[in-house]
Prior knowledge:
The protein is mainly α and about 140 residues long. The protein contains 5 helices and 2 strands, in the order ββααααα.
Amino acid sequence: MDVRNCKTCGRLFNYMGGAPLCPECKAALEKKFEDVKVYIEDHPQASISQVAEDMDVSVKQIKQWVREERLILSEASLDGVLCEHCGRPITSGRFCDKCKAAMANNLQSALDRPRSMQQKPSRERDEGDKMRFLR
């Protein structure tokens, strides 16, 4: 059993994984997420900083929700959410579409390589490679 202090309120709780938040603070954060989501739907041109100020949420938290792909921003509200690989502005996730495609192609090409290149051939044993015992 892993007991920790809540990052927000400081109360002790049984930690089960994820963010170190007690159940009450997690519920409050989910409620705040729903409110931010509705606000963004109603104000699609709002910047992240404007949403954070109007909804009393940190910019860091909004960016985290965008990186987790829970929120999708409009093209006009891109201010500071960048692709982790190339640095282009993105609307959701961690990587832009171009970098996602490049990573998928690299992975697919690695999977398509012939097995003979990936595995070294085992060498055949000579008569001199046998184990010897001293008497």
